[in-house]
Protein: Aminopeptidase N
Amino acid sequence: PKAIQLADYQAPAYEVTDTHLKFELNDGYTQVHSVLTLKQVGDGNELVLNGQDLELLSIRLDGNELTTDDYVLGDETLTLSGLGASHTLEISTQIYPEKNTALEGLYRSGGMYCTQCEAEGFRRITYYPDRPDVMSVFTTEIIADAEQFPVLLSNGNPVSEKTEDGKKHVVWHDPHKKPAYLFALVAGDLQVRDDHFTTCSGREVLLRIFVEPQNVDKTEYALDALKRSMRWDEEVYGREYDLDIFMIVAVDDFNMGAMENKGLNIFNSSCVLANPATATDAAYQRIEAIVAHEYFHNWSGNRVTCRDWFQLSLKEGFTVFRDACFSADMNSSTVKRIEDASMLRTVQFAEDGGPMAHPVQPDSYIEISNFYTVTIYEKGAEIVRMLHKILGAEGFRKGSDLYFERHDGQAVTINDFVQAMEDANGVDLSQFRLWYKQSGTPVVEVLTQYDHAAERLTINLRQSTPDTPGQTNKKPLWIPVQLGFIAHSGEDIEVRPDQPDFWTEESQVLHFREAEQTFSFGGVIEEPVVSLFRDFSAPVRINYQHSQSALRFMLQHDSDGFNRWDAGQQLMLHWIELAEKGRFKLVKEDIAALHSVISDESLDPAMVAYLLALPSEAYIAETRKSYDPVAIHNGREQVLSEVAEALIEDFKACYERLNVPAEYQPAPADMARRSLKNLALSYWARASSDGIEAAKAQFKSADNMTDQMAALRVLVTCADQAEAQEALNAFYEQWKHDSLVVNQWLTVQCGSSRLGSPDHIEKMLEHEAFDWRNPNKVRSVIGAFANQALCHFHSENGRGYRLLADAVIRLNASNPQIASRLLTPLTRWKRLVPSQSHLMKAELQRIMDSGSLSKDVYEVVSKSLV
Ligand code: HT7
Ligand code: ZN
Structure:
């Protein structure tokens, strides 16, 4: 397969001013009739339409039927040449949604039809210029059996509806120009929950969530989250919703989390449906964030869209930043920051260090679906956050206002976004733009020196970015370093460097812009503890060795919540390293520091839970040049047990204090209480049989999934195997009718470092609850195994790798997107200890040799084998 290059971008010769679509949904096949109004807008008289897996029935140009001599039908294109200034093009195709297991284009999920067109799914529906810079006004007619499919939806506003001869006909019209990737259609026997939102200018918007009938009682939270998002976007960005109706549909078979189709968002049911009995607090928070994310796309993505797919982070990075700020405002902002930064450091840093490393604005790809990555989304969001830090809240808002005003209705580039920020603030962001172009994680080395006599502190910073595939000799970046100095009293000392041009007082940010810079701070009367990169102000690795006592001090006193947490993580990383070498013993100062955290009732309990949680095995691996996953697992387990034993009375007391009867509420304070209570339970149960008994009692009596699942996880981790299995069996009997709960049940065991052995995974693949066609099930079993049960996945004989490779080979044929995403853990072979590394590489090679690979899988495997 051939790589697509950013440098080859050419504007389209024709725009499609209007697109009329007629869908006739029949049992087993669907006919699509399109009428396109074409207008020449660029150089050339050639029109290239994309098409994939289509049966072409007919083409007419300006009313005349064309024959095969009039066009060129390629593998995945249909080209018309010698065209004039304007035309009407009519095309009929036949497609087979029932056979579509890739879940791109139009497909069947259970009893309903739905679409997924981003990035290039529309070309599986009909021949069309399937590129985001072709924006058109869509009218969609849908005809289907009235009894089976009483609900027929598409983008925009409903125009007409009738039933004739047992067939239902509906027409939808979307007045907003949009690219084909934002097109959507849904047909099914669905129930709806309605609500209303009055916009800031007083317009009434009808809000509708469509779900399968058994899920109506799981829709309230998403609707509430939607209303909060709509209000927030008005208040924080001045963005009002622009149609009279906004719809959400839940579907069970979906490759990703959700899709922002104009006026008709389609959600993976796991990312929208919740009630207290079936959804955990984590699921509620995920739903709030994803509902907001998709809604925010209405402006950052739909009204202003991407010129081409190299600009993907234009909409995704900006929208993730927007949804993160929303979640921070709705919940604890510090906890949200810890969660996001921790995920970035674990997953995105690993991507940067692997064979698929790419810049936030890539310059080539083979399959665009492979580029919906943590780099595009999360690192992209970090770049926008740095702009916010550099420009300040007001400057950033001026920039975003200008961006929306300038580009409303257009398909634009990342550069246009940065330009708007520049123009609105009169600042030169040329160097800052490098963040989009350079891949890899920058490393910042820090040296500090204190001169007591001169009352002066100097900070020397050096930056470098390692080579990544296709990129060497990287230039220095503009890195915002948010700083704090902490006195012995635990209070912050006011800081100000002698170089005012490199300092922003409002955000306490030092602007580090050269390969090496030294900053000095005068009037510092005592040697402070330096708190660097507060609020994780830049997505970099920091090389700075705080002493153990400084880390304990920061864990107890840093006024910056993120660095307070990170100090604890650094301490714990050190403990785990010692444990791996057989030299770990928790000293009394460590116990005192942890004790002071757990007994500080003035702290947010959610924060305490994070402060007491050990770094994940995946993050520990990420901090090492080369790693042995089993040694990491054993070292971490030892530290967990020692902490549990040393603080057993604290954990027991904490659990008992927080385990109060209360009606379940998905509200921040309640979630925080549950998170600390369940963390305390997990430690307590590790150290004592009383803790296990408490977990059993909680498992039986819980009236909400957060507590029930937490107790089940504790039993799976700490109870003896028979008791763990008994709890799992009881859980399945209780919940086997609810597929989303069953997925959680699959995850808790397949991701378990106790139960998730290859034997167990093979058993679960045969279980009645498993289904290869459903991505959520595949993720719950194979994804959980390969990403969480690391000591089993990396079993010495390479069986875990073989199991994953077999799954990839199987899914390559049915669902390439899922196959390609699933194979990520196999791409990390170079960083493993040699004994594991060659076993993993051999499995990659086996995939490569397994026959005809999809573009998705081919790209990842071939780049990984280099
Ligand atoms: N913009 C959406 C991306 C998406 C997607 C991409 C490729 C294949 C399937 C997909 N489903 C959704 C999701 C979002 O970022 O909001
Ligand atoms: Zn998005």
